[in-house]
Amino acid sequence: MGFSWASAGTALAAAAATTSALTGSAQARADAFPCGAPFEVTIGQDVHTVQRCPDWHDSGRIEVYADTSVDSGVVGEIAVAGDHWYECGRQGDALYLSGGDVGNDWWARTMADTGRWGYVSQLYFKGGGNFEPDTGLRRC
């Protein structure tokens, strides 16, 4: 059976309807855009198990920090093309969108366009709720 945008749209609509019917922390756990299945990438001589996670940013770029805090400094960025690969996730400092009503303290390890490893706030992951990890991303 081949891919069809119609069936994909129907599945997304069903997922959205299910999510909107839930409340509280159960709703946050109903991530309509979880990270995909793990796969391996080889970087140099090292093999890393990673997952593609749907991400976004209104500027089209996501900053990658040295650690799980904005105070750790930016090591590069990633282009947002709908999803990027991430190795794992862990808790750190909270990051908020301007206005302060949306935030997350979960971060995901990835490689920036500079070739340096770092962390992206899961605030920029599609789906899920505030201050919760992506339901599909492995833990560091």
What strand line-up does the widest sheet have? 1-2-5
Largest sheet: 3 strands, antiparallel
CATH class of the largest domain: Mainly Beta
Per DSSP E runs of 2 or more residues, the count of β-strands stands at 8
Helix/strand/pairing category:
alpha+beta
What percent strand?
Answer: 35-45%
Helix and strand run: HHEEEEEEEE
- Overall, the morphology is globular
Oligomer: single chain
Q: CATH superfamily of the largest domain, please?
A: SH3 Domains
Number of domains: 2
- Counted by DSSP, the helix tally is 2
Signal peptide: 1-28
Keywords: Signal
Protein name: SH3 domain-containing protein
Organism: Nonomuraea rosea
Describe the structure in your own words.
Residues 1-28 form the signal peptide. This is SH3 domain-containing protein. Keywords: Signal. The strands form three sheets. Strands 1-2-5 form a three-stranded antiparallel beta sheet, with no helix packed on it. It has a three-stranded antiparallel beta sheet with strand order 6-7-8, with no helix packed on it. The chain contains two helices and eight strands. The model is unreliable at 1-28 (pLDDT under 50). Helix content is 16%, strand content 42%. The protein is α+β, with helices and mostly antiparallel strands. The chain has helices at 5-21, 24-29; strands spanning 39-43, 46-54, 61-67, 69-79, 83-86, 88-96, 103-111, 117-121. Strand 6 (88-96) and strand 7 (103-111) form a beta hairpin. The radius of gyration is 16 Å and the shape is globular. It has two domains: 1-30; 33-140, SH3 Domains (SH3 type barrels, Roll), CATH 2.30.30.
